[in-house]
Amino acid sequence: MADVIRLMSDALANQIAAGEVIQRPASVVKELVENSVDAGADEITVNIKDAGRTLVQVIDNGCGMSPSDARMSFERHATSKIYTSDDLFCICTKGFRGEALASIAAVAEVELKTRREEDSIGTQIIINGSQFVGQNPVSTTVGTNFSVKNLFFNVPARRKFLKANSTELQHIITEFQRIVLTHPSISFSLYHNGTLIYNLPQSNIKQRIINVFGKNLNQELIPVEIDTSIVKITGFTGKPTATKKRSDKEYFFVNNRFMKSQYFHKAVALAYENLVRPDCIPPYFLYFEVDPHSIDVNVHPTKTEINFENGSDVFRLLQAGIRETLSKSNVAPAIDFDSESDDIEVPYFPKDAPIPPMPKVNFNPFYNPFETNQSSSSGGYQQHNDDGERQRHNIDNWQQLYSGNESLTEDLSFASHESSFAPKVENRLIQIKNKYIVSPSKSGIMIIDQRRAHKRVLYQKYIEKVDANVDSVQTLLYPITLNLDVTSFAMAFDIRDEFQVVGFDIEFNEDNSIIINGIPPFLSEDSATEVINDIIDSYKEGHGNVSTSIKDILAIAAANREVIPYGKALSPEEMRQLIDSLFATNEPNFSPEGDPEIVIVGLDEIEKRFS
Question: What is the DSSP string of 424-485?
Fold first, then answer.
């Protein structure tokens, strides 16, 4: 049998590497802008066409490259940042893997123009799909001008699976934001199809955050300052009033590198415990400074996951630091452990002090509040009879407590050790923790999540109203202006036709604001902006490919505005009405989001618990 193992060509190897490093146009933006930052640029411009499909261009005024370095930069594993294995554990720069430019050149048409300050003329390099076309002298400014055209032109399968332009633009903006938030001393510009999206001058961290996400955040940010021998954490966290269910403003940075971490996110969430709803989280922008030797950033191709040597210690410091920050900002109760006041005296007993007697309470364990012949002067207490016989409860008076409930059930009863005097409780529905409704069923016990059940009922109501009022608009006497961030504005513009179909009349402005001139007839004016934000968030969460129609999203958003919260006590009649309405819907077993609403605990399971 002939040998079958052979070396891959460089072009094929580069395409495989590109599959890891270059997943979409946003990956190109990330790699090129990070290289510009590492080159020492203080001014970076990004030009995008067709959400990166046609063009991604990054221009900087950094140090530039010599002709030989420019050519060498496209070779696999070429790097100016890593020389020994020890360098991998002391990384302070952005790009370092040595595969980015080779990967980009493998799946696109690339043109590079670069010049160093000491050179009188620059160099131009053209590469198409890993095929070197040429290198020529060229007149260009100091720095680097990188143009990536027709991304994935030679990998049609990859190009076919790119999402809608609005979705790809959202990913580009996300990567752009992650970089600009760590480098406020650099001015950045972002253009899409010739339209300026961001113009960010040099500033401080807070001003950069506001410039990126809008002035609405200005009054919602609380400064954070945590300085220990293990980690230094600075930045800002949001007031409890700024919390949202879906937040796109949650950022961790480690040594000026963006990091994803559900672990540290949990620490922030715990710091806000009992201050915000459990399913909400405020915005935060937290910058970690640690010894580079104590972290490993080379654990994922996108370099967004970072391993900490002492992660559990950082977790506790972060949680405690955020709590202290909230306390100092008067948004959380504080306990002053450092008080030196002498006003508070702590009582103590001398060793020879007599032991105080135990308090005594006189009471009659046989007192029956339903006995009409008892003296009211006894104050709820009654002495024994001469023979010490216990007075029995008056069963007629007990039964009066449950009059009117006889028709509800025959399945539940409360028993006592004196069965002849045990009243039968006629109440089919029980509420547990003001969260679940419990009822007996033929096969066991049925447990219903009251909030999810109510949401299903409201969703059914609103989906019917949406279908009945298609193309109907309730014109507002006073239009509402809603300011959006860049990503939300792009998402809203992308689904503007769908907004119109369900009854919104929306006008789009160039300053990323929208004017709401009309709303669906069944929607209240007060909830219009929140519903629109919910629709945009749902669309962003699905990256432009929501599995449900905008009618469903609108109905869910409207239902979310009215659904009863956990912790609300319901009367028996309210519980009965809710359950009847639930089983009248098309799909009573699941909430509109697909979460279970009903759980049946079977008789077999109950019997196992007692075996």
Answer: PP----EEETTTEEEEEETTEEEEEEHHHHHHHHHHHHHHHHHHHTTT--EEEEEEEEEE--
Q: Is residue 310 part of a domain?
A: yes
Q: Is 362 helix (H, G, I), strand (E, B) or coil?
A: coil
Which range of residues forms the domain containing residue 191?
10-200
Residue at 409 is within a domain: no
Q: Amino acid letter at 221? A: L
| Mean confidence (pLDDT) of the chain | 80
Task: Give the integer Cα–Cα distance in Å for 404 and 386.
Answer: 39
Half-sphere exposure of 545 (CA within 13 A, CB side): 8
Residues 215 and 175 in one domain: no
Residue 512 has pLDDT above 50, yes or no: yes
- pLDDT single digits (tens) 172-210: 999 999 999 999 999 999 999 998 889 999 999 999 999
Whether 297 and 435 map to the same domain: the answer is: no
Residues 187, 216, single domain; the answer is: no
Do residues 117 and 221 share a domain?
no
* 196, 211: one domain: no
Which of 138, 168, 200 is the endpoint of a domain?
A: 200
Cα distance between residue 306 and residue 31, in whole Å: 18
How far, in whole angstroms, is CA 252 from its chain's centroid? 13
Instruction: Supply the CATH number for residue 321's domain.
Output: 3.30.230.10
Do 20 and 128 lie in a common domain?
Answer: yes
- Distance (Å, rounded) from C-alpha 594 to C-alpha 166? 27
Q: Which two tokens stand for residue 368?
A: 């029956």
**Side-chain half-sphere CA neighbours of 41 within 13 A:** 30
404 part of a folded domain:
no
* Shared domain check, 167 and 247: no
CA 118 centroid distance within chain = 48
Report the candidate in 463, 469, 476 with the shortest Cα–Cα distance to residue 503: 469
- Picking from 172, 200, 228, the residue at the C-terminal end of a domain is 200
> Residue 106 in contact with residue 45, Cβ under 8 Å?
no
Strand order in the sheet with 598-602: 430-432, 436-441, 444-449, 598-602
Distant-in-sequence, close-in-space partners of 456: CB < 8 Å, separation ≥ 6 = 582, 585, 587, 588, 590, 591, 592, 597
Both 466 and 548 in a single domain?
A: yes
Q: How many CA atoms lie within 13 A of 177 on its CB side?
A: 22
In DSSP terms, 508 is beta-bridged to 514
Which tokens hold the place of 101?
Answer: 């430019």
- pLDDT above 70 (res 136): yes
φ, ψ (nearest 5 deg) of residue 205: -60, -50
Torsions phi, psi of 265, nearest 5? Answer: -60, -40
Does residue 122 belong to any structural domain of this protein?
yes
d(CA 265, CA 158): 33
β-pairing, 284-289 with 250-254? parallel
Kindly state the tokens that stand for 268: 């922030």
pLDDT at 310 over 70: yes
451 in Cβ contact with 564 (< 8 Å): yes
Domain total of the chain: 3
Pairing of strands 295-296, 430-432: unpaired
